[in-house]
Request: fold
Amino acid sequence: MPEISVGIIHANTIYFTLDGKFAGKDNLTVAPGKHCISVNEGVLSLDGMTIKHLPYLTPQKDKCRFTLHDVVIGIGFHWQQKEDQLFKGALSFVIEDGKLWAVNTLSIEDYLFCVIASEMKSTSSLELLKAHAVVSRSWLMAQIEAKKKPKTAYRDANINSATLIKWYDREDHTLFDVCADDHCQRYQGLTRANNKTVKKAIDETSGQLLIYNNEVCDARFSKCCGGMTELFESCWQPTHVDYLQSFVDNPIRPAGTHDWDLSTEEGARNWITSSPDAYCNTTNAEVLRQVLNDYDVKTTPQMYRWSISYSPQEISDLIESKCQLGLGTLQNMEVIERGPSGRIVRLKLVGSNRTVTIGKELEIRRALSSSHLQSSAFVVDRNAEGLFIFHGAGWGHGVGMCQVGAAVMAHRKFAYKTILYHYFRRAILEKRW
Reply:
């Protein structure tokens, strides 16, 4: 079973507490209890004493645990905060940019239990949890495997006086496999890992990965596809991924939609302003609670279809605060390119001072919301007062597994393998350990 290293804290000074016996390399012994490690202008100290080597502390019994204090969670979000977190496995430290990283090394299955227990609820369907366990495990192993290969030289930003095309994807960490925050996958150790249903899902899918052409699938997922999944290349690098296809989130194409090409303005408008039948087209609160936070469910969020409106001044100020394009007052928006789910890939913004084309989907969502617009699958109308009215579909990029759709499938008693093969077509499921 593979092990994984996770970067937890990045700071000049880190406080930690050892519960049990941990052995260090180079005859370094660290007693149980609370300790402090710090770096100052390259000089290392442990509990106030200068040390020459960074400690790597290995638990001597399976029940040994350690606590990291003042771990920052929700970095960059409105709910950012600090908390103490409990971990199993080894604790080590590395230096990056003059600061220490606290790194936790443990088995991939123990890691996944903590990740999914943090993300999902005990009320979630076992089959949904099993599907998510395979997806998260596959994504993780794909990132690790990708680090071993030569990188393809893609230009991740194409910027000139009239064009701003960016895509945002996870950047590799060089000193460990993944970090503990949303940049990779949210990992909060054993702090919330008390979910017996998640443990069962991890155990029953242990070592199972999605495979395509004998390689681990880069398994993506989003909250709600809006009834049609999207292609990888519409959101990230210009590379076609065979197992991440675009299709209706439904065993059959809904009646009346067969002639709708969602990459055209007419087709996209027909799709987005209607409500075609799809797995993720649900208002079932029991299902939604499985994939949404409690406060989201209480406010009855719009997901499958949604709308939002801005005055010309509001949207102009918003775009300028996010992108600093110097458009002036926004006068019009023109879609240059849509993906097959209707998500906009390139959008022309016509301002009183200049015109700029932006993309890809997340850059568009960033530019048109104070946080992130729910989706780039939208059409825009202007009313008599001049308001820009957005009518949209879905929540997120729409690539790979639709979480709401998967929750509905599980609720309808579909097995996790059926869910996976629905969303990752041409992939197969293999047990690798």
